[in-house]
Amino acid sequence: MIAAALLCAVLAAPALEISIAPDQPVPYIYADEPVILQIKSNEDGQATGAIAITDGNGDTVSISLQAIPLRANGAHWQPIDGAPAAIGRFTVRVALTVGGSTVAKDLVYCRIKRPNNAARAPVRVTLNDPSPATLHALRGVPLREITVPITMPDVAGFVSSAVADGFQVTVALDAAAVSDMASLVQLAAKLGESVSAWRVSVPDLGVETLESLAAALRDAGARGQIEAVLTSGLTNVSAYLSTGLGRSAYKVFLPHGNDAPSEIGQLRAAFESAGYEGFRMQELFAAPDVKNDGSNHWLIARNLLDAQAEQGMSPEIDASIVFAKNAFGEPYTLISAMAHRLNGYACLEELPMAPRARAIVFRQCNAWVMVAWAMGQPVVQPIPVGTVADLALTDANDNPLPAPEAADGSIRLALTAAPVYLSGNGGSMLAAVARAAARKEAESFAKNKSFQKDLPAEFVELIKPIAAQGFNRVDRVTFFALLRMFPVLEQKWHDGSIAREVAVPAMASLSRLVRNLCVIEQDSGEAFIELFADTVARCGDYQSQYLTSTSGSAEKHERADWLLAEVARLTAEAKALNDSGCSIEAVGVASLAEWRARCLEFAKNAAPLGTPEPARAQPEPKPEEKPAPKPAQKKPARASTKKK
User: Fold this and answer.
1) Domain boundaries, the chain
2) The pLDDT of residue 552
3) What backbone phi and psi angles, to 5 degrees, belong to 501?
4) What is the CA angle 80-86-89, rounded to 5?
5) I need a labelling partner for 632 at 20 to 30 A (CA). Which of 67, 389, 569, 640 fits?
């Protein structure tokens, strides 16, 4: 009897559907809009209850819901007065009572800034779930660069639709799993220019399969770049390079590990030793192993920022980190904040901090953004800012915080595990970061045993003062003496005087060093004697001379073509700096471009990169010199004993 009564009560209770942000395809709410609760009922009635909204810090706001009218088969939109106005991810507990029965529902929503479709998020995503909801969530950041597996059902249809919707799509495949080359070629021909890149997981057996795949894709009309994933990490990298990895791939990816910055550094060193300077490399972040319970979202955000500092490029994450099973992951608003705060900014370097804190600085001419956090327990950290303008502070979700006041050119910033964004214009921040980076690069250069052994001694001596503790800036004579070493090293490499594994890492290190010195020169306020327009014109002359001398040649010039592109990149950067008002730095960067352009006449004779170098002729040992015989010593005359 009791069971029957309970069954009747359950059957009599109205069926309720409760959701948030009904006007959006996924539950995100723009920063300037109210939180809307939607209630659907199968019968007329009236609901009362409460809603509890909890933010990422665990703070909860409880709001009473009074006398909400319900209509059968209708939808009621209820604005939630008192809901948090801050940007962030929120968990919601809704409890409604209708006709004596209570219905509870757990929801998640995010409050975000309106997407800036002109912005380029500093993160890419691997997408295994092609659902419309996931794509809507990605657009909210906006995350526009996506990678999809070739095994995705109707991958051609999805790629065409995603490209039409504004996404840039990379197609990923496993080289070892390609059994039907004809089908792959047919797919590549069908997609044509729709695919931005083809990503190939390099099998352990080597890169021969990668080369054949790349050739087949090109022949089929694919125009996207070829990317390679080193699935076995750093194992066999040298062997891969010797068999053509650098020629076949436009970019390489390394799966994220516990010691990722060190591994990326080792990978860069291996490429430079094989002759590939400035090669593109990034990290791949797999889906998180832990649940969205508040234990890993700060770590994910810090890892992504670390990856940009180490590589200067956008890391790639699994899309499930930000959206999965129709729910937002905790890092969603953190990545949205990166997209808004760092849009248009390039990573400069780290600002040295106490062992318990990290800070990475991004810049756009004189404007800068510093992202900082504590490594363990909270810490208060002094930050040098100088005479800075427009100082502003926001939290990890891009909510404004009170800006700290500067005193004696410095501020004190309270840091926790959650990153904060400090931004400003001018001041001493950029010079402080560049000075520390220059010292670090110079110290590494001066301690390199191979450089000490094989490079001209006077060159190493030029570098040593920059590594000194009290380094401030170099004089202009030293600045241009460093630049003149580029063609010297390039020539000595190609005439066999210096091994490639020494010359290329030395030039790569020198380029990073000089680029930081250019920032310091801008801070000094001392104009260069050289004129910007004349320096840029000389760059063009050297480029034209190279192109003229190699026109009509079927021979490939890997090194020289890379230098040609590098000179063009540096020249474009110098022009942008000059247009933005950083005229001193612009001349420095243009001068770097010029002296790299002077290397073209030697680089056009370079052997193919990655191939074994011919043995260098060892210098003839100097003949051992016998010590000259000592001159015969005259015996002193005896004193006369005769008496006079």
Assistant:
1) 14-111, 113-344, 345-427, 442-603
2) 64
3) -70, -10
4) 85
5) 640
Q: How far is CA 130 from CA 133, 153, 184, 471, 527, in A?
A: 8, 9, 21, 53, 54
- List Cα–Cα distances, 192 to 109, 186, 187, 220, in angstroms: 39, 10, 8, 8
Contact 349, 437 (CB under 8 A): yes
Decide whether 113-344 matches 345-427 in CATH topology. Answer: no
* Pairwise CA distance, residues 503 & 300, whole Å: 37
Distances (CA, A) of 133 to 30, 251, 323, 545: 17, 30, 9, 54
Q: Which amino acid is at 19?
A: S
- Name residues of the chain where pLDDT drops below 70: 1-14, 203-208, 257-261, 286-296, 310-313, 552-555, 614-644
What is the full DSSP assignment across 291-340?
Answer: -SSSSSHHHHHHHHHHHHHHHSS--EEEGGGTEETTEE-TTHHHHHHHHH
CB 142 within 8 A of CB 339: yes
Cβ atoms within 10 A of the Cβ of 231, count? 17
User: What topology does CATH give the domain 14-111?
Assistant: Immunoglobulin-like (2.60.40)
Residue 5: its pLDDT value, please? 45
Residue among 228, 222, 146, 147 nearest 184 (CA): 222
Residue 197 φ then ψ, to 5°: -160, 155
Could you tell me the maximum CA-CA distance found in the chain, to the nearest angstrom? 160
What's the first-to-final CA gap in the chain, in angstroms? 160
Q: What is the CATH number of domain 345-427?
A: 2.60.40.1180
Residue 341 to residues 13, 57, 311, Cα–Cα distance (Å) = 49, 21, 19
- What DSSP letter does each residue of 492-547 carry, written as one string? HHHTTSS-HHHHHHHHHHHHHHHHHHHHHHHHHT---SS-HHHHHHHHHHHHHHHH
Pairing of strands 74-79, 36-41: antiparallel
pLDDT given at position 296 = 65
Closest CA to 333 of 641, 18, 28: 28
Q: Token pair for residue 183?
A: 């089908």
DSSP conformation class of 177? G
Beta-strand relationship, 410-415 and 379-384: antiparallel
Residue 251, SS3 per DSSP: strand
Q: Give per-residue burial for 315-346: e unless 16+ CB within 10 Å, then b.
A: bbbbbbbbbbeebbbbbbbbbbbbbbbbbebe
Q: What is the pLDDT of residue 11?
A: 43
Determine the length of the chain: 644
Residues whose CB is less than 8 angstroms from the CB of residue 170 and which lie 6 or more positions away in sequence, other chains included: 145, 146, 147, 148, 195, 196, 197, 198, 199, 224, 227
Q: Does domain 113-344 have CATH number 3.20.20.60?
A: yes
Query: Phi-psi category of 451—alpha, beta or left, where left has phi over 0 and alpha has psi -120 to 50?
Result: alpha
* The dihedral formed by the CA atoms of 192, 197, 198 and 200, expressed in degrees to the nearest 10: 170
